[in-house]
Every structure is written in C-alpha cells, then in structure tokens.
Design a protein that fits this description.
about 300 residues, alpha/beta, Arc Repressor Mutant, subunit A, D-Maltodextrin-Binding Protein, domain 2, 3 domains, five-stranded mixed β-sheet, three-stranded antiparallel β-sheet, elongated
C-alpha cells in the first residue's frame, strides 16, 4: 500500500521532472508556466525533503546526480503513464490508429485475408499491426489488442477465445517421405524451422520427454517464411492447426503429431472499457470466429 503522507508534494515532483526533461530551470518554468525561480525553489525543497542532492550545481551546465537520474527516470515513467491514461479516458487519442500485436504467422494466414471486410465496414478506422512473437504489454496510449496463442492464462488481462486450435507438428512429404515417425525422438533426425523469437522446437520436444540430443538443425525465420520453408521441405514446424489446416488438406504438409487441448488464439485486452475504435475492432473480430475468410460479416 502506498504511504501517501511520506511522498513529496506533487508540485515539487513535477518541477524536478520538467527540469530533468528540459535541461534548465528556465525551460522547465516555461513548460509549467511558472518562473525559473519557482522551479529552483521547488527542486531545492524536494532535495531538502528527500535528504539527497538531485542536481549538481558545481558547473555552469545543469547535471543530475546519480540519485537525481534515478528519480528522473521513475518520474518520467510515472508521468508518461498518467498522461496516456488521461488521453485514453478523455478521448484525446481518439484519432490514434488501433494498435494490434500478433504473430506474423497468424497475421499472414488468418488476419490479413479477412481485413478487407474490416476496411469495408470501418473505412474511418486505421490499424497498426505489429507481427511479432514478442508479448507486448497492453498500455494506455500503446497496444490496444493482442491476438495471442496459448491456453488463455494471462492474469490481469481480459481474455476471449478467438480461434481454438491444437498444436501440431508437420512437415512436407518430400522431407519425411514414408519414414515411420511414431515417437518424438524420431524428429531429431530432421531440420526444424521456428518462428523468429520463439523456441517452439525445443519447447515441444522437452514437453514430450526429449531432453537429450538436439535437432539436426534449427533455423529461425519470420512466420510467413517458416510456412513457406515447411512447404518446400526445409524443416519440420510446430504451430497451430489453424495456421496449416489448408496446407494439410491440400497434401502440401503431412501431420506428424497433434496435441489436443484447450489452446488457441485469443483476443487479449486490458481490463476496463476499450476506446471506441478498439472496441469496434474487437466486435469485428468476434464476428469472424465462424466466418470464412472470404465472407463479409
């Protein structure tokens, strides 16, 4: 629990944060619409309250002490978060593009083929899609929506299943031929492809008891290149069934193992009310759950 009575006054913290950001008392005063003398007075009062020097005044140019830099970094993080939250709550960021985080493979195989429908229905809403395996934090002023694969266990976030999908191990028939691949350790005889930024091959093998030895080779590539590489026989891949169903149906890939479970791609958002444009995007996503990619609605 925050000890509110022990915190320095907000006016002093604002003055110091502005000083650290602008580099001078005069510029900080202009930013806060007060005199430079008021900034200096607030900073000195803050140093007295904290009992540590925050500014090195020995030279002609303002320099922060080690303690000053530490406090300045903390205040920047805090005030930036407050500013983004205020913008989100007051609608100041209403024109900002809806920022979506997802994997490159899911963006390529599921999201992009359907986006023409969203663009037709919502021509006034801009999207910014970041295809990356990194789990980006959902923050006010940052990412609005994430489309994540997993079991849905992301504490502190709102999670809704979008595309249920098992985890599968697949390869091109030309790579594995007619070989009997009945145990996970048989997969060590082949090269693997992984989506950049993941450890899918080692994770899957370890989960299935293969803890000794290693795959013939592991090549990390962007998600769309991983699928293309698998098609032409460059390696075995571990991925979501939904991403390769068409390839399996067409015989371009062969199913080797399938892990049935409660996994899939989920719509992930922060708790609370989404801003209107993000809410419209999520509503559209829900309509796509059972709709084929060429269906408008």
């Amino acid at each position: 629990m925050t000890d509110w009575l022990n915190l320095p006054p907000l006016t002093a913290l604002r003055a110091f944060a502005a000083l650290a950001e602008t580099g001078s008392a005069q510029a900080a005063g202009a930013a806060l619409n007060v005199s430079h003398a008021a900034i200096s007075q607030q900073v000195k009062a803050l140093e007295g309250r904290m009992g540590v020097p925050l500014v090195d005044r020995s030279g002609r140019k303002l320099q922060l002490t080690t303690e000053g830099r530490e406090l300045a970094d903390a205040l920047k993080t805090g005030f930036d978060t407050i500013a983004r939250s205020v913008d989100a709550l007051t609608g100041a960021d209403a024109d900002r593009a809806v920022q979506v985080s997802t994997t490159q493979l899911f963006a390529t195989t599921w999201l992009m083929p359907r986006l023409i429908d969203f663009q037709t229905r919502h021509p006034g809403i801009d999207l910014m899609i970041n295809p990356s395996a990194e789990l980006h934090e959902l923050t006010p002023g940052g990412y609005d929506v994430a489309l994540r694969f997993g079991d849905g266990n992301w504490p502190g976030l709102e999670v809704e299943m979008l595309v249920p999908s098992d985890i599968v191990i697949t390869a091109a028939p030309k790579l594995v031929g007619d070989c009997e691949i009945t145990r996970p350790e048989h997969l060590l005889d082949y090269p693997w492809l992984e989506e950049l930024g993941t450890s899918e091959s080692t994770d899957w093998l370890r989960k299935h008891g293969v803890t000794e030895g290693r795959a013939k080779s592991v090549t990390q590539v962007p998600g769309n290149l991983m699928l293309e590489g698998a098609r032409v026989g460059q390696g075995i891949i571990s991925t979501a069934m939904s991403s390769v169903q068409a390839e399996l149906d067409a015989g371009r890939l062969k199913l080797l193992f399938r892990d049935a479970g409660e996994t899939g791609y989920h719509i992930v958002t922060r708790p609370g009310v989404l801003r209107p444009k993000a809410r419209q995007f999520v509503t559209w996503l829900r309509r796509q759950k059972d709709a084929p990619c060429d269906e408008k609605g």
